[in-house]
């Protein structure tokens, strides 16, 4: 019996960020998460006001001024990490992007995570993706992770599909196993570590990066025990072949969706 089984029943929470007025698609997706939490007795917390307000160094940042000034000078892409503040309150935490829809019949994702792991997510190159997206994975992973591979910064396990990285739209945490890697730091102090400065400031290839690059670097450098979740827990709409089989559908390319994803009814017909 692993340590998590011995702690049953578990105290679990799903954390989401929705700052500003959500689109119709985001509202629909967030409601699906709320319904899911009610079905499985999971606490649902939605951050609606920025809390961490992580700011790039305006003197060295490679990011466009618009990318942070339009939000009042901070980067909303790093607000999700506020979930780390709840590690003492919940045995397990899932951090789920606001553009992920959960099917009504989806099983409890927390049951997929045993006590051998601190972190869980889906590796993009392990997804059942369409041919065009394979090239995207190869190019993106090389741009973000080639320079990080080796040199004591982590093994990103390159192969013919590119460098290994996890899509951080859906993250699972076993709280007590993950917490030691934060070294007692608050979410804000964690993100402001010197080793993350190039990611936050968007230096070089990280100009368009989100917390995804930072977290993948963190996982690899510190060899955090990470479970490779099945692709059905983060099905990239428009990129995977098996979206109709996925429990969680991730509308990650909102700008490329018909009508920007605002015709939710038509969009839902495409995944059933």
Task: Supply the key terms.
six-stranded mixed beta sheet, 9 helices, 15% strand, globular, 26% helix, 272 residues, alpha/beta
What can you tell me about this protein's structure?
There is one protein chain. The chain has 272 residues and is α/β, with parallel strands linked by helices. It has a single domain (3-269), classed as Spore Coat Polysaccharide Biosynthesis Protein SpsA, Chain A (Alpha-Beta Complex), CATH 3.90.550. It has 9 helices and 9 strands. The protein has helices at residues 3-6, 24-40, 65-69, 131-145, 175-178, 187-191, 197-201, 211-221, 264-269; strands spanning 12-17, 43-47, 92-96, 100-102, 119-123, 166-174, 226-228, 235-236, 248-250. It has a 6-stranded mixed sheet with strand order 2-1-3-6-5-7, sandwiched between helices. Strands 4-9-8 form a 3-stranded mixed sheet. Strand 1, helix 2 (24-40) and strand 2 form a beta-alpha-beta unit. The radius of gyration is 18 Å and the shape is globular. The mean pLDDT is 94.
